[in-house]
Amino acid sequence: MTTPVIRALIFDLDGVITDTAEYHYLAWKRMADEENIPFTREDNEALRGVSRRESLNRIFKGAPIEESYAERLMQRKNEYYQAYLNTITPADRLPGVAELLEEARNEGLRLAVASASRNARMVLERLEMTEYFDVIGDGYCVVNTKPAPDLFIWVAGRMNVYPGEAVVFEDAEAGIDAALAGGFWAVGVGSSAVTHAHMVIPNMRVTLAQIREGLAQAAERKIPG
Ligand code: B16
Ligand code: MG
């Protein structure tokens, strides 16, 4: 069995490093209630990993939104969201993620964050995790957000690695699609719609050896014999 050569790990933020989805939900919900727009926890699942603007489009179920009104709604939601972010501490790191980062760092792998969020740096600071990463890609770095592969390609370029040498950890379908479109190894995290990743793990309690093993099996499935 050939084990892929891995030189870098790329981590999504929400759903992989920490769970900010609940805060996104509460902030959108408050805005939606104020505007009398129906919005449920189930609706919120469709917002995982997609940009703020695309989230608003989905809340409006594709109906046209006047631009300045859209800006005001997004700004208000972001104010509510940032108030929640102020409560985040290192205890909000998802279990296993710091251990995996330590292991990867000791092996000399390059490490990056690639998040659709424009608040990614603030979240990493609150988690006291900024120092782990060689590169932080956030919602300001590229124009085309996930499922376009642009953000992953941007961070890979900054780390000086090829996509095929990097593993992306993602909890959202849009993120897995983006990783696969860019030619990265894709690891789906959690139980949501990430079944088309090269491998799926229930949570971040995972070792590099387990990742290499899972990816080698995926490579084998693709190239039989
Ligand atoms: P912001 P990720 C994503 O983070 C969230 O999953 C998604 O729900 C949110 O709309 C998006 O960030 C933009 O966030 O409003 O803070 O810019 O999963 O890509 O780390
Ligand atoms: Mg995510």
Q: Please give the CATH class of the largest domain.
A: Alpha Beta
**Unique ligands:** 1,6-di-O-phosphono-beta-D-glucopyranose, magnesium ion
- Major sheet summary line: 6 strands, parallel
Number of helices: 9
Strand arrangement across the biggest beta sheet: 3-2-1-4-5-6
Write the CATH architecture name of the largest domain: 3-Layer(aba) Sandwich
What structural class do helix, strand and pairing data support? alpha/beta
The backbone outline, from C-alpha atoms, is globular
Question: What distinguishing features does this structure have?
Answer:
binds 1,6-di-O-phosphono-beta-D-glucopyranose, alpha/beta, 9 helices, binds magnesium ion, 2 domains, DNA polymerase, domain 1, six-stranded parallel beta sheet, globular
Please characterize this protein's 3D structure:
This protein is an alpha/beta fold and 225 residues long. The chain has two domains: 8-19 and 92-221, Rossmann fold; 21-85, Putative phosphatase, domain 2 (DNA polymerase, domain 1). The chain is built from nine helices and six strands, in the order E-H-H-H-H-H-E-H-E-H-E-H-E-E-H. The protein has helices at 21-34, 41-45, 52-59, 67-85, 97-106, 120-127, 150-159, 173-182, 208-222; strands at 8-11, 110-114, 135-137, 166-170, 185-189, 199-201. The protein has a six-stranded parallel beta sheet, sandwiched between helices. Helix 8 (173-182) links the parallel strand 4 (166-170) and strand 5 (185-189). Helix 1 (21-34) packs across helix 4. The longest helix has 19 residues, at 67-85. It is globular and about 55 Å long. It starts with 7 loop residues before the first strand and ends with a helix. The mean pLDDT is 95. Magnesium ion (MG) binds next to loops.
